[in-house]
Design goal:
Blueprint: H1 2-12, H2 33-38, H3 51-55, E1 65-70, H4 76-86, H5 91-104, E2 115-118, H6 123-129, H7 135-145, E3 148-149, E4 154-156, H8 168-175, E5 179-181, E6 191-199, H9 203-212, E7 219-227
Parallel strand pairs: 1-7, 2-3, 2-6, 6-7
Antiparallel strand pairs: 4-5
Length: 229
Amino acid sequence: MAKILNEINNILLPQVCFGCNTQLFRGEHILCAVCRHDVPLTDHNFLEENAVDRIFYGRIPIKKAASFVFFSKNGIVKNLLHWLKYKNQEQIGGFFGDWYGSFLEKDKGLSKIDVVVPVPLHRKKLKKRGYNQTALFAQKIASSIGAEYRDDLLLKILNTKTQTKKDRQLRWENSKAAFQLNPKCKTSYGHILLVDDVITTGATIESCAKVLLQLKNVDVSVVSIAVVP
C-alpha cells in the first residue's frame, strides 16, 4: 500500500532534479543521472596529500583533511548548497552523506574514527533554520564508517553573521572565540572526524579543531561537503 501511495504521489507531485529541474525517474534522487555525472568530485582520499590538507599546514595539527566536491561561484554545487542551507531542503545533506560515505567506507587510508562531530550552529540560528545543514551529512558518514555521531560535544557560543563575503582575516576574527567544548560531555575519544559544509579559508575548522584538541590524546581529521579551490 505504501508503495502504491508513493507512486500516486509521484504522479500528482512529480519530483524534479535540483540541478536542471527536469522530472526524476525511478531510482533517481535529488539529481538526475546527467546532473549527478556533472558534479565536480575532488577524488580526495585519506592516503595522499591534497589541497585541503595544505590549507591547515602551519596553522593547526589536523591529522587528515578532505572534501567531497569542488565549489564554484556558478555551478550545480552552489545551487545544491543554497537549497540545503536556505530553502529547507535538509535531505540534500543526506544525499551527499550517503554518496560520500560510500567512498569513505572503502578508503583504506582512513584511520579508525571514534566519533563524527558536525560544526555546530548557534542555538538562535538553529532555531531559526530548524536544522544544522551539516548534521544529516555527518550522520550518514558516521553510519557508513561505523562511528558514533555526536552533535553535543562542540558548542557555538557566539552568534556570528554569515562569512560568505568576508576575507580570511575577518573570518578568523569572527571564528576564533566562537566555539567551546560542552562542559557536560565527559567522554574521551581517540580520533574525531570534524565535519563542515564548505571550506573556504579554513577559519571555522581551525577554530573548532583548536577546541577539540584541548581533549587529551586526541587526533582530529576533517571532511566537508565542498571546498573552494
